């Protein structure tokens, strides 16, 4: 038995017990193996677009005796994944814009019975805005520290309701007002990026005013 790092542990915490899992961009397949070993899911598909990581995943699955519950699939996103393969879907360790592209070209994901667990490495705000505008509800979001950096994991379900997110919702999702140090660190990182971005915005513009107000609010959250 092995332990997951903080990032994958947080992803695992959002997976529904007894579900079928698709791990897109699985790399070493640690997440599905851990979930199977702990009897938390029924089965899993471990998918990757690259043959090298998929071979690593296959070797690990055999090593930990999970070959009867986890199948590996060479796939660019969901191209070789069927809707019946998964109820819960994890996309972790990739850019927010890539996650958007993979969701957008997969109609069967737009289903209230599916759950998306998303951990973007970059462009989290782009991903959140897309989810809001396409009818996904971010039902929960938490932050974690991995290799010294702060990331968020979003737990999402489709309800078909189109939302116009505020700047706060776009940039920090459900993390606003959380008192734990990890959330504060994530929000602080976002604030510093916004402070850099605002330098290139016309001070007389509406966006400048809205972003200035958001930065003040983020200061309140972090106590900086």
In words, what does this structure look like?
With 224 residues, the protein is of the alpha/beta class. 40% of the residues lie in helices and 24% in strands. It contains 8 helices and 7 strands. The chain has a 7-stranded mixed beta sheet, sandwiched between helices. Helix 4 runs parallel beside helix 5. It is globular.
In short:
The protein has 224 residues and is α/β, with parallel strands linked by helices. It is built from eight helices and seven strands; from the N terminus they run αβαβαββαβαββααα.
Distance between the termini: 41 Å
Compute the CA-based radius of gyration.
18 Å
Low-confidence stretches: none
Q: How would a crystallographer describe the biggest sheet?
A: 7 strands, mixed
Query: How do the strands of the widest beta sheet line up side by side?
Result: 3-2-1-4-5-7-6
* Number of E strands: 7
SSE order in H/E notation? HEHEHEEHEHEEHHH
From the spread of the alpha carbons, the general shape counts as globular
Topology (elements, then pairings):
Layout: H1 6-13, E1 19-24, H2 30-37, E2 41-48, H3 51-63, E3 70-74, E4 88-94, H4 96-104, E5 115-120, H5 124-133, E6 136-146, E7 149-158, H6 167-172, H7 181-198, H8 206-222
Parallel strand pairs: 1-2, 1-4, 2-3, 4-5
Antiparallel strand pairs: 5-7, 6-7
Based on the model shown, name its key terms:
224 residues, alpha/beta, seven-stranded mixed β-sheet, 40% helix
